[in-house]
């Protein structure tokens, strides 16, 4: 059975009833029917919310998933990051896991510093602030990291950064399997 990982953009698409909603619903239906294994990345709860802020409670995210009919999908935990992730929703890491994360980051965001402290130093940002560029980059990296770490087959995203040919090929070499848009992902059912 093929496994699919839906990224944060897929949740947003469903929430806003965007054009790719029909394809995403087909994937979720295939999961419900036992024809596919569809999961979500738990780091999606850490992304910037519609109001511009961050969630304080993971249960709010779980309620959002339930309202979208996604609560039966498996949540793939990311690496545990203090002040980014949620307690009991992240994995303690080892050197190999951290190495993979750094490789992914260098592919997706070569112009954004890997560590928060380096980002702040390079850009004269207050280390006690929250810069959405760094947070978004870290969440995107953790999304594909979760997909690779949990040995999934198809990473589903409409984020064009993942679909740039050189980046896509590099991520596949790191173990991403396939990276597809929601429309293309349906063809693997």
Would you summarize the structure shown here?
This protein is of the alpha/beta class and 189 residues long. The chain has helices at residues 8-16, 21-32, 58-67, 95-108, 116-123, 132-149, 160-163, 165-176, 182-185, and strands at residues 3-6, 37-41, 74-76, 154-156, 178-180. The chain is globular.
The tally of strands reads 5
Structural class, by secondary structure, is alpha/beta
Count of helical segments?
9
Distance between the termini: 9 Å
Shape: globular
Biggest sheet strand order reads 3-2-1-4-5
Q: What CATH first level would be assigned?
A: Alpha Beta
CATH architect. name: 3-Layer(aba) Sandwich
Low-confidence stretches: none
Structure, explained:
It is a single chain. It is built from 9 helices and 5 strands. With 189 residues, it is α/β, with parallel strands linked by helices. The protein has a single domain, classed as Rossmann fold, CATH 3.40.50. Strand 2, helix 3 and strand 3 form a beta-alpha-beta unit. The termini are close together. The mean pLDDT is 87.
């Amino acid at each position: 059975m093929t496994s699919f990982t839906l990224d944060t953009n897929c949740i947003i698409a469903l929430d806003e009833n965007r054009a790719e909603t029909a394809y995403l619903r087909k994937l979720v239906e295939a999961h419900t029917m036992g024809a596919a294994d569809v999961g979500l990345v738990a780091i999606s709860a850490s992304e910037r919310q519609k109001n511009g802020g961050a969630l304080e409670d993971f249960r709010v995210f779980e309620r959002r998933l339930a309202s979208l009919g996604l609560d039966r999908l498996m949540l793939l935990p990311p690496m545990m990051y203090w002040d980014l992730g949620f307690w009991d929703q992240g994995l303690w890491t080892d050197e190999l896991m951290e190495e993979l994360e750094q490789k992914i980051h260098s592919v997706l965001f070569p112009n954004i510093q890997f560590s928060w402290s380096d980002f702040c130093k390079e850009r004269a940002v207050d280390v006690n602030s929250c810069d959405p560029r760094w947070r978004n980059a870290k969440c995107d990296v953790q999304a594909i990291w979760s997909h690779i770490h949990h040995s999934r087959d198809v990473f589903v995203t409409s984020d064009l950064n993942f679909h740039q040919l050189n980046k896509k090929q590099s991520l596949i070499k790191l173990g991403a399997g396939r990276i597809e848009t929601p429309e293309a992902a349906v063809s693997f059912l």
